[in-house]
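2024-03-11 09:14:02 INFO worker-7 job=invfold-0412 stage=load source=structure_tokens
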């Protein structure tokens, strides 16, 4: 498949040195004018508008081979950022460069090297089959038929699509359509993937297959910006995270550092045989508990900063047979809940 990709950053490219960037965003700002709804007849006769600032001076850089999570509550500005990167909307101010070009001014050149998936916006054509849609994109990107056939074969090994290629898009379920959307975004082997909720509607097996395919792309030097609410996707693919709250970037760093810095609390996940008495569980700072039967169970317990994990495990060993102990930092879900709660409290103050 080496012959089918569009030109991009590679070891032989003069821009692929340490200073090369795939995305450069500086002081990005975007404001929307929205209708201030009252009653329908007043909106019709004398509409009034208000301005909502979606992005407040956002800055970050993405380099070749990075997989970066873009996280935040609904309305934080994630989709607006991605649309600016794809040249769909124009920033009010600030600088956006993708492959050293302005995506708004040089949209054709930039789009040839990116793949974008928006959960609510389709890349497909309702009356065509997936095979016909891929053929259209083959012509758009100047690919050979063999190139596309090899891509479909690779994609199908991770995400089963062979049985869907002859079905019209309008007859596909949500999960099946998302498989087609992902194919359309990846068919030209883009250097940059902008993914906004790409696993909506995918079952567990399909989602894991797609994430494996995504990791292979990153290993080959492609760059991924992933906006999602599925934090298990982040933990499977991304090493770096950007946190956005109310249009402001509040964190840019590694996922592991984020866990350490937010409280620094550790947890011990203990798998055991037997039944854990409720009185013992009630005396421990339990994060999560799972007891599928009387024979076995699992509990995740918070380890206080001044305590050793062994002291927590010792309490459990007194009543059950401990099989396995894993010590780590809190799950990303709990970390983000803490971060955004602190941010909202600070904004309120």
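2024-03-11 09:14:09 INFO worker-7 stage=emit residues=349
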């Amino acid at each position: 498949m080496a012959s089918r990709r569009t030109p991009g950053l590679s070891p032989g490219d003069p821009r692929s040195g340490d200073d090369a960037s795939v995305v450069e965003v500086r002081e990005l700002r975007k404001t929307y004018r929205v209708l201030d709804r009252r009653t329908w007849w007043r909106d019709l006769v004398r509409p009034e508008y208000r301005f909502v600032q979606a992005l407040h001076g956002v800055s970050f850089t993405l380099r070749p081979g990075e997989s970066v999570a873009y996280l935040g509550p609904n309305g934080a500005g994630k989709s607006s950022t991605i649309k600016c990167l794809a040249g769909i909307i124009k920033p009010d101010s600030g600088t956006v460069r993708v492959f050293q070009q302005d995506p708004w001014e040089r949209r054709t050149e930039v789009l040839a090297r990116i793949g974008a998936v928006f959960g609510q916006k389709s890349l497909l054509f309702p009356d065509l089959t997936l095979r016909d849609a891929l053929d259209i994109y083959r012509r758009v990107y100047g690919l050979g038929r063999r190139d596309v056939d090899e891509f479909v074969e690779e994609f199908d090994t991770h995400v089963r699509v062979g049985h869907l290629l002859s079905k019209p898009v309008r007859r596909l379920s949500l999960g099946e359509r998302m498989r087609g959307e992902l194919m359309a975004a990846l068919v030209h082997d883009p250097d940059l993937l902008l993914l906004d909720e790409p696993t909506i509607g995918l079952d567990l097996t399909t989602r894991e297959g797609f994430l494996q395919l995504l990791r292979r792309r990153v290993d080959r030097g492609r760059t991924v910006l992933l906006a999602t609410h599925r934090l298990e996707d982040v933990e499977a693919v991304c090493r770096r995270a950007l946190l956005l709250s109310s249009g402001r970037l509040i964190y840019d760093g590694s996922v592991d550092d984020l866990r350490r810095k937010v409280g620094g609390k550790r947890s011990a996940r203990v798998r055991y045989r037997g039944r854990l008495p409720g009185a013992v569980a009630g005396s421990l700072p339990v994060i999560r508990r799972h007891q599928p039967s009387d024979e076995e169970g699992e509990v995740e317990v918070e380890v206080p900063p001044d305590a050793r994990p062994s002291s927590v495990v010792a309490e459990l060993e007194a009543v059950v047979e401990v099989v396995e102990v894993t010590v780590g930092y809190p799950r990303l879900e709990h970390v983000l809940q803490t971060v955004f709660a602190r941010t909202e409290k600070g904004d309120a103050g």
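2024-03-11 09:14:09 INFO worker-7 stage=report msg="Residues 1-18 have pLDDT under 50 and may be disordered."
2024-03-11 09:14:10 INFO worker-7 job finished
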